[in-house]
TrEMBL record:
Cell compartments where the protein resides: Membrane
Keywords: Membrane, Transmembrane, Transmembrane helix
Name assigned to this protein: Peptide/h+ symporter protein
Annotated family: Belongs to the major facilitator superfamily. Proton-dependent oligopeptide transporter (POT/PTR) (TC 2.A.17) family.
Family matches, as InterPro entries: MFS_trans_sf, POT_fam, PTR2_symporter_CS
Membrane topology per record: Multi-pass membrane protein
GO BP annotation list: oligopeptide transport
Pfam families in the record: PTR2
Organism in which the protein naturally occurs: Pterulicium gracile
Membrane spanning residue stretches: 94-111, 118-140, 146-165, 194-216, 222-242, 395-417, 444-468, 480-502, 508-529
Keyword Transmembrane helix included in the entry's annotation: yes
A Gene Ontology cellular-component term: membrane
Length: 574
């Protein structure tokens, strides 16, 4: 039997031949380059938010730079304290991961993905300019005015959604290597590789932002924000200049909006204040029937139904396949600690000339080092040994490693409290008689552990979730699934808002420990509830890979450079 969506590959072939990834098109590398520049600008600004908002202007400083005691001094500006810094940065995370839903709707209904990203990148550049303006000395003289400009810039600056995975259009096929060996060129392994290297590009950009920590400390925040603004300015031009190399999906109606309408139509008759009753109705065999045109007599189909039966089936299968993402808010809740609170922890330690917000760059450095090792070494070796390290197993592993990183942070924080000269569980506020910091006599680099551990966990959990979101979605449902996957970080940020009261320095030990245990428990539940998906891996990868790819039952056309093509030709021009 031939595998659905393949080029003549049988199920027997899948067992007989070694599986390898396909070559990556040049357009995928161009997208990765754009994302590198975008992430440089993003991390070059947001990495400094905690210090910028939490800490006050250092003595004799007008722009946030450290003038006195540069060895252990911490750059700062607004002086709003830990809780407000946490809340504002959490709001930034929430907004960044909500906007892809708006972007997906605009891309599907109006402009297409490429034009949408191009327009949003110009808008984002305006946000960078406003952020730089918020940090000039004249703005910092009015804390409320500077804060207002900061919030406006956060609202304007949104994440530039990737279009990298859709650059690969190959299918499952057999191919003979120059050595004479016949192999299976696997789209699933290719997407795994694409997202590994896409994530590497993100983190090269993040590491490139290391300079921002030194610039803020030595030259002030407006200069620190001006540099990533200048780097981001190349993104719109690069996207426009290289357009002919991209596989571009034209707008053909919002799958996202249509999906919401299908769900609303199916949920309306079964909704109940009793969650158990509602859940039973959802799991019943007839739940989706009310949305299928075939359910109604000819001429009686509701006007609101603008889709076919197959589209309803794809919504059904996509909802089932993507239930795995419902666990990710807890993972990102755990991850947020290294993105927020550990920066505050590092400010209490002996810096020896190292900016405290520099240490968080160990996270992207870890990813840059280990992604090639996994891509070229560990994953191929596991396949050679016939070990099927499926996405569900990888994500579960990522949860457990993330929990370990948080328990490391909890133990470390306990010793920091004990060794602080002030012994008041507020080590960042400990001051000498001349009002310069009196740090804990421990090197700031002892905090490296959680950053490295969380970086390794991202390879298993975060990268795999992007791969899973793309490969498990029917082609015409991918914008829905990718938006839903990213929305989990927004949900995590919303959960974080409810924890603002405990995100204070004197409760960090308890906070880190509880995050670690919670992530382990959720990881265990994730495995128990999703392990059956391992057995359906091939079937899930085949969802929606047949000829019917269009919107609401129509056949899709894909724009490749200046050409419009269907199923016969899927290679980018140039």
């Amino acid at each position: 039997m031939i595998v659905e969506g393949s080029e003549g590959v049988t199920h027997k072939d899948l067992q007989a031949y070694r599986h390898v990834s396909d070559r990556l098109p040049i357009s995928a590398w161009l997208v990765a380059t754009v994302e590198l520049a975008e992430r440089w600008s993003y991390y070059g600004t947001t990495n400094g938010f905690t210090n910028y908002i939490r800490a006050e202007l250092p003595p004799q400083s007008r722009d946030g730079r450290v003038v006195v005691d540069r060895q252990d001094g911490v750059a700062g500006a607004l002086g709003l304290g830990q809780q407000k810094a946490f809340a504002i940065k959490t709001f930034n995370t929430f907004f960044v991961y909500v906007t892809p839903i708006l972007g997906a709707i605009i891309a599907d209904t109006m402009w297409g993905r490429h034009k949408t990203i191009l327009v949003f990148s110009v808008v984002c550049l305006v946000g960078h300019v406003i952020l730089t303006a918020s940090a000039v000395p004249s703005s910092l003289e009015n804390t409320n005015g500077a804060l207002a400009l900061l919030v406006i810039s956060i609202v304007i600056m949104a994440n530039v959604s990737p279009l990298i995975a859709e650059q690969y259009t190959g299918k499952l096929r057999k191919e003979m290597l120059p050595s004479g060996e016949t192999v299976i060129k696997s789209p699933a392994l290719t997407y795994q590789r694409i997202y590994l290297w896409f994530y590497a590009a993100i983190n090269v950009g993040a590491v490139g932002a290391i300079s921002a920590s030194f610039i803020a400390r030595n030259h002030g925040y407006w200069t620190a924000y001006l540099v990533p603004t200048a780097i981001f300015a190349i993104v719109p031009g690069l996207l426009a200049a290289t357009r002919k190399y991209y596989v571009i999906t034209p707008p053909r109606g919002s799958i996202l909006l249509e999906t919401f309408r299908v769900l609303r139509m199916c949920l309306s008759p079964v909704w109940s204040p009793n969650p158990r009753k509602t859940w039973r109705a959802i799991k019943s065999t007839g739940f989706w029937e009310v949305a299928k045109p075939s359910t109604y007599e000819e001429g009686e189909v509701p006007a609101s139904i603008t889709w076919d039966d197959e589209f309803v089936g794809e919504v059904d299968r996509t909802v089932n396949a993507c239930g795995v993402f419902l666990f990710f808010p807890f993972y990102w809740l755990c991850y947020s600690q290294i993105d927020n609170n550990l920066t505050t922890v590092s400010a209490s330690l002996r810096l020896d000339g190292t900016p405290n917000d520099l240490v968080q760059n160990l996270n992207p450095i870890t990813l840059i080092v280990f992604i090639p090792i996994f891509d070229r070494g560990i994953y191929p070796l596991l396949r050679k040994w016939k070990i099927n390290f499926t996405p569900i197993k990888r994500i579960t592993t990522g949860f457990f490693i993330a929990g370990l990183g948080m328990l490391y942070a909890a133990v470390l924080q306990h010793f920091i409290y004990q060794r602080s000269p002030c012994h008041n569980n507020l080590p960042t506020q400990c001051r000498k008689e001349d009002e310069t910091p009196d740090p804990v006599p421990m090197s700031v680099w002892v905090i490296a552990g959680p950053y490295v551990i969380m970086g390794i966990s991202e390879i298993f959990a975060s990268i795999t979730s992007l791969e899973y979101a793309f490969t498990k979605a029917p082609k015409r449902m991918r914008s829905v699934v990718m938006a839903f996957a990213q929305f989990q970080q927004a949900l995590a940020a919303a959960l974080n808002f409810s924890l603002t009261a405990v995100n204070v320095e004197d409760r960090f030990t308890w906070l880190f420990g509880s995050m670690g245990v919670t992530t382990w428990v959720v990881g265990a539940l994730f495995w128990i509830l999703n392990r059956e998906l391992d057995k359906r891996e091939l079937a899930l990868n085949s969802i929606g890979t047949g000829n019917r790819e269009g919107f609401a039952g129509e056949t899709a056309e894909t724009t490749v450079g200046t050409h419009r093509v269907g199923e016969e030709k899927q290679e980018p021009s140039g």
